[in-house]
Amino acid sequence: MTTTVEPSAPAGTTEQPGIGNDRMRVDAPAKVTGTAPYAYEQPVEEPLYLVPILSTIARGRIAEIDDAACRALPGVRLVLTHANAPQIRVRTDAALVILQSTEVHYRGEFIGAVVADSPQVAREGAGLVQVTYDEQPAELGFVIDDPRATVPRRVNAFKHGSYERGDADAGLQRGRLVEADYSLPMEFHAPIEPNAVTAIWHDVSALHPRTTRLTLYDANHGTGLHNSLLAPVLGLLPGQLEVISPYIGGSFGAKGFPHPHLVLVSMAARLLPGRPVKYAMTRQQMFRSSGNRPASKQRIRLSVEDDGRLVAIDHQSWAPTSRLKTYIDQTVSATRMMYDVPHLRTIHHVVTQDAAPGIFMRAPGEFSGMFALETALDEAAHAIGIDPIELRVRNEPSTDPETGKPFSTRNLLACLREGAEQFGWADLQPVGTRRDGEWLVGLGVASATYPNVHFVPNRAGIRYSDGRWSVEMQASDIGTGAWTILPQIAADTLGVPVDRVDAEIGRTGLPWAMIAGGSNGTYDWGDAVVAAATKFRRKHGDSPKEGAYETAAGRLPRGARGYSRHSFGAHFAQVRVSTVTGEIRVDRMVGAFAAGQIINPRTARSQLIGGMTMGLSAALHEEGHLDERFGHVVNGDLAGYHVAAHADVVGLEAFTIEEHDPWFGRTGAKGIGELGIVGAPAAIGNAVFNATGVRLRDLPFTPDRLIMAWEARSSG
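^ thats the sequence. predicted structure below, dont judge the formating
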């Protein structure tokens, strides 16, 4: 059924319990009026300001740092380098171990900092620091079949580096063979709010070190990992680190794990006892120091019978990983379970680079791999003359082809069929035949999926005070709606009006919760909220006493590990391509999604439309350029790294298929935050082919690439 948005209850009225009901975001008034305090804006007394010193080589050692001119500048309070930095004894994450030696691992690495009375003085001081290096040759860049590539044993906790079933080589000898290479550039998260932190040490000079405490006002996906990853690096026990993160101005993964800037600012504040230290990355520093979606190059070979049945797929990817810290997207993993293919080979190849570590970015792996797979399927459909939707229907599996497990729910076909009807897929015309003046018009389709296997036993608390209930947990709202939907889930279980339920989230000291990531927030956190609210109601009934409080942990439903758990969807795109300029415009996109029980139609639609917008932006604009000579991102700002503007985003529609999946948890919800981006660029690229007959296999689809492909086809 279509997701609709109805007005929320007016102020002063009593809202009914909440799962499935539309509700306005409770944090919206604070955000739109500018009163929501973000990490850098937290009011503290007499703050100092930090500006980092960044390496200007990709590999080598620091020979000398001359900071005399900086120290002489009025207002400079500290120049922090490896020479005076506190010693790190516990190394939880290689990227967090900074200022411990003269070694440089990548261009843009933190090698020092200047702290001053104002940001302006700190920036001027950092510019006066002179650093000389013993530079070494750096390894940057990679290609398909790169001789330096290795196959990792695992790409993460859930997926192996390679996987095979059947006999792929024999299967590729049967039917029609489709073979092509696809590429995606490095991409950057580009949230509105940069990574930022305010650090304050307490009782640093106390006789008993265990009374020392550190408060960080931080922008992050959740405080649950800071005590395990960051506190030991800083020499703190978990109870000595307080992290407060109530509001986040977007992330998409850039604020997922603790970054080195938290260590840098904490070190500086430790050496300046009693003075808070603030730091917000500049936009250029965001492109150097907060991670990125690594570039990938992929090769797909598939064979298909004339009746549309897939025989074999060989899907391999090549991607860079940092020498300092390994990060690998699970690029080819979706291919293993998406369709009923008897013969399959998928392999991840990684090439070590002297570059900054990558990090997860919305739908890490699935976004990249499904672009290639769904484009290749469109190529196969045209090769044998079958409708692209029908090709997918004929290869629908009855169980997960990778694991053999039944799907908890799999409504991909419903998404394809209902999406086709709402979009008007019946208007599809032969390749290159639909024209409107200078514009060629085409339609395209692609499937979407995202795995939901990362269930973590979170805890939640329910507290009653002064006639109101409060949901408490270390969850974080990165813009996805946690402030709004967690009270809805609690109210539904407690049987009380949702306007009498509050949320307290975004800080340590609350019941532990996993970070917002992997699209697991709503169903993981929600399951814990249901557990806590059920326990609270059982113990305290309809009339709880003042101060009543209960906590409980969520748990995966018994037997759920016997099911393959994924969300599914389908994208439909209509594009117009100028025969004069090669410009591509997306006239309309329709997304149909099956993502379990929808907790709040308004926030769900926001997430789906947001994902589709990011997919459109990646398809038409986003492309990071790494200079392989010097290791820097050439277009490392929002003037050079283009993202979709309002004029690019028109006619986006999203609706959901009615679905309830009990194997994800007690709310019946699935993950939704990343589903909307997966497959969107493939749908647009497939529409470009329908319009022009030109197949684009490299993101983004810029006019120059289209024109060159057009000319190559005409001359060849």
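Residues 28-36+465-555 form a domain with the Aldehyde Oxidoreductase; domain 4 fold (CATH 3.30.365.10).
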